[in-house]
Design brief:
Helix content is 42%, strand content 24%. The chain starts with a helix and ends in a 6-residue tail after the last helix. The protein has helices spanning 4-15, 19-26, 30-44, 60-88, 100-116, 133-136, 170-174, 225-233, 243-252, 281-299; strands at 49-51, 56-58, 92-98, 120-126, 140-145, 155-168, 190-193, 200-204, 212-216, 220-222, 238-242, 256-258, 265-273.
């Protein structure tokens, strides 16, 4: 079996001109060093060094072996240096997966991160299906969810809470029935997240009092939040969205929050990684960056965790 340590000891003995000097440099007994070289010669079936009490001379095959062994050790050191440099400075390629809605939210953040870390490359995979990070080789997954994620081998890091609220266009509210309690939603047109033909509902809650579950018959269902928001702006009904998704439109007056004391859903954004062990600095740097930025952008509060 190949033992690169024996190659290393042999090269050191040659470089130092003998076992005694090499033993002192390596801080190992001369006898140990000599025995390792003898074992190497026995395994190779050739004499590499002609040695007497006064001389230490390479054989012809020993000189050839030394040249290759030394080159191999130089390459091994270069390989380790490559890893060390990558561990010292974020570099390399990160593969991240997220939903279409999250991708639009991440776009500015990822651009800022790449600007700050020019040696990092990023591959973003966008899909609304549930991706298997380990099986498909992703470093990071970012998911928004209202129910706890299933237990798995993945490491979960909660980035922030994301409360959902009800919104509608001012024009819709002006021409529709009054709305002061969730039960009155039955008299209104609604726009809901989802793409399957199933019974949909919102569970509205406030700080005090019991939850109110409202069954929906949506005028529009979609798993694309931009489509839902556009429909609400067009006056097609009341939509439930994360607060940060509708923030700009509320500020401009295109949408108004309705039932302001109630939330329509409590959700979270969670970052998933296959493991903390062996993560490249680039992956750790992106995790730290997203953990710092998400709470500030989504809720306006800095994350000190």
């Amino acid at each position: 079996m190949l033992d690169l340590n024996d190659h290393h000891y042999f090269v050191q003995a040659v470089d130092h001109g003998g076992f005694a000097a090499a033993g002192r440099a390596l801080d190992i007994p001369k006898s140990t060093l000599s025995r390792r070289v003898i074992n190497l010669e026995a395994r190779l079936g050739v004499r590499l060094i002609e040695r007497t009490s006064r001389s230490f001379v390479l054989t012809d095959v020993g000189r050839d072996f030394y040249r290759h062994a030394r080159a191999m050790l130089i390459e091994a050191e270069a390989a380790e240096d490559t890893v060390t440099r990558r561990l010292a400075e974020p570099s390399g390629t990160i593969r991240i997966t997220c939903s279409f809605g999250m991708a639009r939210f991440l776009s500015d953040l990822l651009s800022r991160f790449l600007t700050e870390h020019p040696r990092v490359n990023l591959i973003q995979h966008t899909t609304n299906r549930n991706v298997d990070l380990i099986e498909e080789g992703f470093d990071i997954g970012v998911r928004g969810h209202s129910q706890p994620l299933p237990d798995s081998e993945l490491v979960q890091r909660r980035l922030t809470d994301t409360p959902w609220h009800a919104f509608a266009a001012p024009a819709y509210l002006e021409q529709s029935a009054s709305l002061s309690h969730p039960h009155e939603l039955a008299e209104h047109s609604t726009i809901a997240l989802g793409s399957r033909a199933e019974q949909l509902s919102w569970t509205l809650r406030r700080d005090s009092g019991a939850d109110v579950v409202v069954q929906l018959a949506p005028k529009l269902q979609s798993d694309d939040m931009d489509t839902l928001k556009a429909a609400a702006i067009a006056g097609l009904g009341i939509v439930s969205l994360p607060e940060y998704i509708a923030r700009e439109q509320v500020a401009s007056g295109a949408l108004c929050r309705v039932l302001p004391e109630w939330t329509t859903q409590q959700a979270q954004i969670t970052l998933l990684t296959p493991s903390r062990r062996g993560q490249l600095p680039a992956v750790r740097a992106l995790i730290g960056f997203l953990a710092a930025q998400f709470p500030e952008i989504v809720t306006g509060q800095k994350n000190h965790g």
